[in-house]
Amino acid sequence: MRVVVFRTCILTACLAASLFAANGPSATPNSAPWSSKAAAAYLDGRLTWWMGWPVAARDHETFCVSCHTVLPYAMARPALRVALAEQAPSFVERKLLDNVTKRVRMWQDVEPFYPDAQRGVPKTAESRGTESILNALILAGYDVPTGKLSRNVRLAFHNMWGQQLKTGEAKGAWSWLQFHNAPFEGDSQYYGAALAAIAVGTAPGNYRSAPEIQDNMKLLGEYLVRERESQILINRVILLWASMKVPGLLTPSQQKATIEEALSKQQADGGFSLSSFVGGWKRRDNTPLETKSDGYATGVVTYVLQQAGVTRDQPPVKRGLAWLMLNQDKTEGRWLAYSLNKKRDLSSDIGHFMSDAATAYAVLALKFAN
Q: How much is the CA Rg of the chain, to the nearest whole Å?
């Protein structure tokens, strides 16, 4: 894939996008406090609950790695380490890493998250494809500070490439769990492939250029390019993130267009609502989607914009960060987000799922480049 060097045009595009800043909140990223300690306590508490939840338990004393609670935790929790004066992964992080490493090493022996025998075909293939990407992304992120790829991460990528589809309409992607639960398990195959690209681009040691994976990378790139136009906006935002990790997935004009479209969804309060990023998706209970700004959309968009070179002093990002600082629940430490699938009790454990992801991405957005 052709390498694209791209910074200046993104900044130029976002200067134009400052037109969206007319009615934003008065807070700035440095004027409204938020609590790293409360965010960490929330994230640690939620992962501890997940690890002990019987529904999440899997064979060989392991637990399921979820897109809404576990993966975002693994990406965000290290960003809080400096603020908490931690010198190493927390006890909860360590348990998560031990779980992922165990399943990576026992890949041929552990059962899939959802076997065909229990859930019907093709849940085994979907489970393997999904888990292989999540495992690689989690472990690659924890290898970054070392500057080199560990044996476990190499094995995780080996497992991941072994699940890549080599034929058919989705050639280059992976089978992905489909439970009709947006945004992670409902028509989310493209989202999963974009995560795979982020995992490769995150891995240290210039792994993305390794000769032995170039055929795989070619297939992945072709799939992401081929299917881009048919994707809902939130998936294209994730692709924008991937394009900053694996240059060449988007042209400069395509990156600019994605940024402008995402910014066109910014609300008067400076935040974003996930409902405006998912096309015509409807809840199963026929209740209307929540349209007010939420922590997940605001966290993801604001974080990805920064990844794409939009600085914190640019009005759209400044407004998004201000919204995040003003909207942390100081008692619980979380940022609220809402299910796309049904109206849920936000005080219930399942009702917390989207807030788990929202809190992690809010942390990533607020801590970026700090």
A: 19
